[in-house]
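Hi R.,

Here's the chain you asked about this morning:
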Amino acid sequence: MVRVLLLLTCVVSLMLVNLTDEAQGLGVNWGGMASHPLDPNNVVKMIKDNGIKKVKLFDAEPSTMKALSGSGFSVIVGIPNDKLASISSDDKHAQEWVKENITKYDHNGGVDISYVAVGNEPFFTSYNGSFLKTTFPALQNIQKALDAAGTRQKIKAIVPFNADVYEAASGKPSDGSFRKDIRVLKILGFLKKNKSPFFVNIYPFISLLQSSTFPREFAFFDGTSQPVQDNNNQYTNVFDANLDTLVCALKKVGYQDLDIVIGEAGWPTDGDKNPNPTLAKKFYDGLLKKLAKAEGTPLRKGYDGKPKFAMDLTGKGNDQMLKGVQGVQYMDKQWCVVNSDVKNGTLLKTDLNYACSQADCTSLGSGRSCDLDMQGKASYAFNSLFQSKDQDVRTCNFNGKGTITKTDPSKGTCVFNIQIYSSAGVRHQVQHGLDLDEFANREKVLAEGLFLVGGLGCAFEFVAFRKPNSSLGELIGHPYVLRALCRLYVLNKG
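And here is the predicted structure, written out as tokens:
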């Protein structure tokens, strides 16, 4: 029987799997790029506290792997896109990677590794074909290295794809086909030969970003006045339509029996008028209720199934806040804001742009959580930089325009954050900031990968930036807004 695996991303990230009865359960996608990482041991405890037993990583960072050792979790380990060229060029490089990141932990009392994700969304159109020639050879070399290490029956290599690898010109799922500029058949054959699933990431909110005429209700699960009729099948939400477009694309090339894993699907909580906690909750409530009913899609029936909002993971209407990471310590309650003596807002733009180029200004703008005047925007930007630099007083000067205050400047939905102390040791500095002028084109920024995801089960969230030539899973962020540290996924039998 064909099995459907769904992995959703969030402000939360869910995954539905139907590999075996043992594969069922709740899991977390755990991204590790942050300027002030949380202690991996505390994150592992948080995951356990929430009854989660499965974890997906985007790399194999040693402190994270060490913390996962002996946890009993089923783990998916990732290989970043920037390593594909090396691994594809020489199978010895693949063997070295497997020895260092898999074999070292694959033992009794170690890490229970189920898959190795080779790259993340390597055929994403924004990469302009950067990884078209290296993905498949890297996939082959990693599986070959896994087999040589004696893990063939246990650990399999897969590729997480973005949903833009397939399309339907008519907008109807039955017309689904793979993009002609990618050579996906070799990968499909490889996956079938190794009995591995097809991983894909689906984000319904992007449909709203790409088209102002897209029917808003079609992005959710409450029904629509404009359903899509496709032969004998009717679609009332874009999630089902998107998934069945993939089903049809696979059928057209003879791989209709492949299991499908929806690696990520979710709703951001800031960055535009549609990304907000209210709509995120609406999306997840609808999705989880759908999963709880085991409805599936018209073409594939019967899959089962510090946060921003209460959530019922069972889909039975029992909202509750999940347990957060324990032992997190904040820095002093102080903020950097614009000096009250500064009356001319036009003098602030240069400093505002500088702060935003060095730190996170995602929440600033019309329709976002921080819709402020120029003084407010500059204060938010000043504080963002100040907190990212561990409240270094030298970063709150701005030629005399900045000052430190003990009074919380937060207003309504706009939260001026306080930095946390990192207990994980390594610091990953932000390498790609955004100028305020760049923020003016919000649709372009969001559509090309600026993505906010909340950490379900995490006490915090961080704003995620996608580096140039990297995937959505390879994130740079600031932990004072930890919106993507952890992603949740659910695995169920279909």
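One quick note: The first strand starts at residue 4 and ends at 7.

Cheers,
M.
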